[in-house]
Amino acid sequence: MSAALALLKRDVMLAWREGGAIGTALGFYLVVVAIMPFGLGPDLNLLARVAPGMLWVALLLAALLSADRIFHNDYEDGTLDVLAAGPLPLPVVAAIKSLAHWLTTGVPLALMAPMLGLLLNLPLDSIPLLVLAMLAGTPAVSFVAAIGASLTLGLRRSGLLLALLVLPLYVPVLIFGVATASAAIVGPASPWPPFLMLYGLSLASIVLAPIAAAAALRTALR
Amino acid sequence: MQMPFKLSLSAHDIACERGGRTLFQGLRFALEPGQALLVSGPNGAGKTSLLRQIAGLLPLAEGRIATKGADPDTPIAELSHYVGHLNAAKTALSVRENLAFWADYLEGGDGGLDQALAAFGLKPLADLPAGLLSAGQKRKLALSRLFAAPRPLWLLDEPSVSLDAASVKKLDDAIRHHLKAGGIAIVSSHVPLKTKFAHELTLGLERAA
User: Fold this and answer.
1) A3 vs B92: CB contact, 8 Å cut-off?
2) Range of A163's domain?
């Protein structure tokens, strides 16, 4: 247990210290959402209707920007060799590193969404549900990103390949995430069925994705 | 290092294949507690691959590696320290934070950090970010990991690269001390070490001939 905590603490500390990770994701999120209204025009009703979709798409892309960091640095400097020799099984290592990515990317992005929602005329009363859905859905984003990150280890310019591998897997998250927020804005359907689907997707990826990522890590270590 | 180790390690006809090429085959050796093995051979002979195979990072193409004196369910990876070409040091963390992480992660207990800081004289640099260290100091940081958690098997791949003469001597002493405690060391090195190696293994002879 102490090994797991040590790894989680180190990863969060590194994301914070190395700056780039959290800053890039939040900056990208801000920029993309801020220029959206200029492209769509000043129709407030239209903006409110598309706001959840825009916020989710921008969030997924922002999270992908830092996805290759999950394993890449540890692979480059040899840390992964030592992590593999530790007391934790490789799937647990992958799960903890994904959790750290969620804490340093998913959570800040989800918490920033209400502020950006104001730029898109997102109705105020739908904000709690939007943030809740994002907090429930972003674990799936981070854990699935870990599969892509481990598969593309050792490749140069792996960003595009990673996006191609991972974005199709994000489609269900996107659909149910937007459906939750839209149901709250447009009605009349209840937002809870899509929310529970979203939550289920996250739980499933927390269990399954680390196993896939660990298998890919094993090959990368050879 | 109070705990005397009692691990013995033996390799039975192991082979290594990289990219469709057989690097070596039919390799065998047996190491009792307190013995060391020196692996030598020309570049590309498979020294690093052999050490990574023992560490469990690279699969064996043939044969098996057996241990005695340890829980048979514990993989060799968890009994060994592998220090390879890469230093596994995080440039954004200080020397102390790097070693504290390894002591915690490898479950070295409370004394692990202090021992690791003292081993190669890194205490004066403890609060410096590892990114500011010289190549030799980074190497010492990587080698200090050997002391962050006591493990019976040391796998050292060219450990003396970029070390100064005084540090090579410290490394030599550290290996000897480890052997005295009943540990095993498998070292690949081009620099002559004073440590008495019970066995020597030269790879790549058939191709050099």
Assistant:
1) no
2) 2-221
